[in-house]
Amino acid sequence: MKGLKALFHIRETYIGIAATIAFQLIFFTFWMTAYDGINDRADNLTIGFMSEDAGIGQEVINGLQQSLPFTTKDFTSIEQAEKALDQRQITMIIHIPADFTAQLHAGKEANIIYSINQANASLVKSMMDGVAKQVTEEVNHTLYPVQQGEVLKAFSQQFSQLPLEPNIASKVQDSVAATITGVKDQTVTSTIIKTNDAKGFAANFVPLMVIISSFVGAMVMIMQHQQAAEIVQHSVSKWSLFFARQLVNIAVAFILPLLTIGLMKLFSISSGESFFTIYLFQAFMFWAFLCLAQVFVIIFGNLGMIFNICALSLQLVTSGVLVPNVMLSDFYHRLASFLPATYGADGYYTIIFGGSSESLTNNSSSLGMIIAVTLAIATIAVALKKPKIAQHVEVTIPQ
């Protein structure tokens, strides 16, 4: 009982219990509200259409644009569509080749080409796979009577040119029946091209894993440094202490990428980007995490941990690694643009799966802006804080 009484006379005991409760409340609140109604926001995803066939192919495209519950965008060239797919502006391309109508009229199988970018959240990839299969089935269901009608029309013309003798008429009828029977009910096939596909199932989880490990690591490091700062704050000026902490943050941020890249190599996670590119991006991302976590503890002290728990939950929800942030509600979608995990996840999709290197530059610039803003806020907070007078504190343990 003496040990129990001693623990409950220390503030950190209550903070630890509060943190446990806060984790439950915060994660349930943010995750359940952020993911509520996601299926109703499928129209926030964009599918690109490219038809090189002005006949039946264009009619198919027009029908799909009316029936699919997504935002659609027409492209005039496959190169433009592939560039938009590579930059994750669209989630899939539905491409109708130029010979689509000719193949149907000839009684042959026509083909629809689907291109799906694998550098996306798992939900989007599985959704687009399902859409491709469903579209092919619906197009087949619609076009089978069309092809059947074309066959009947062709044989009717042949039949009218023949003498109407019973034996010949019977042969023509048999020929028509045999031909119609030979027409497949699957007149359209599908080709699914998965762009930016990474080898290995584990590669799909690298963006999520890096986000979690980096921010949780940043949280723990900042909290420990805050406790260390409280111990020495009476013997060191606040500015000397603040700048020393920034130097430690920068040093760790630029050393950690060596471990990250080494672990990726160890577990055979390959990338098309150079060592230097991955190194700099990981350094900027971790530095941004450290600066964000630091702001809350500098302003609120140990209670800043509660805000960091909120930041962790919000970043996992809005980063786009589980559910694309375009499918979130407007509040969470806007909030995502202010959080470093959004740019970290998008950058790691490019690093792991491939895509436009321009996105890495843009994401790094956004991370740099977050670093600058959070450092400015932390500096102002330190400037407004009054230096504490040295005190001798004793903890009395009840008997």
Written account of the structure:
By secondary structure, the protein is an alpha/beta fold. The chain has 2 domains: about 1-35 and about 200-385, no CATH class; about 45-195, abc type-2 transporter like fold (3-Layer(aba) Sandwich). The protein has 14 helices and 5 strands. The protein has helices spanning about 1-5, 10-35, 55-65, 80-85, 100-105, 120-160, 165-180, 205-230, 240-265, 275-300, 305-320, 330-335, 340-355, 355-385, and strands spanning about 45-50, 70-75, 90-95, 110-115, 190-195. Strands 2-1-3-4-5 form a 5-stranded mixed beta sheet, with helices on both faces. It starts with a helix and ends in a 15-residue tail after the last helix.
Salient structural properties:
2 domains; alpha/beta; abc type-2 transporter like fold; 8% strand; 399 residues
How would you describe the shape?
elongated
Major beta-sheet overview: 5 strands, mixed
Strand fraction equals: 5-15%
Distance between the termini: 10 Å
Could you tell me the radius of gyration in angstroms? 31 Å
Number of strands: 5
Q: Spatial order of the strands in the main sheet?
A: 2-1-3-4-5
Output the number of helix runs. Answer: 14
Map the helices and strands:
Elements: H1 2-7, H2 11-35, E1 46-51, H3 56-67, E2 71-74, H4 78-86, E3 92-96, H5 100-105, E4 110-117, H6 122-160, H7 166-182, E5 188-195, H8 206-232, H9 238-266, H10 275-300, H11 304-318, H12 330-336, H13 340-353, H14 357-384
Parallel strand pairs: 1-2, 1-3, 4-5
Antiparallel strand pairs: 3-4
